[in-house]
Amino acid sequence: MMANMSETNGGNGSSGAGGPGTGGPGGGNPRDWGGAGGWGGSGGPGWNTGKRLERKLAGRYVAGVCVGLADYVGVDPNLVRVVFAVATLFAGVGPIAYLLGWALIPEEGEKASIAERLINKNGT
Fold first, then answer.
1. Pick from 15, 53, 58, 82: CA 20 to 30 A from residue 21's CA?
2. Which pLDDT tens digit goes with each residue over 59-77?
3. Exposed, middle or buried, 19 (CB in 10 Å: 0-12/13-18/19+)?
């Protein structure tokens, strides 16, 4: 016997357990997904755990991008630094990625990144 995707995923189309408002892509409009446990909701493993990606003040060498990424992902900061170095040597994108991280990731204790503050200052 073959089961359709809705039965396999626990829903029965757009109004089942995986439908809109219940947090799953069982059917319906994707903008409606986001109830409890949904992609935009508050449930689910690893989502909304209180972690925030930010450039750290302690342990930084330049701007805190590597330390912030390492803290967010849960790895050693030196591993992230090595990844940036390898990306610089082999692809040449390490410095560009680092500058983007510096501009887009807010510093520890700040609510907005450098880019956000620049856009809001010029936009309003």
1. 53
2. 888 888 899 999 999 999 9
3. buried
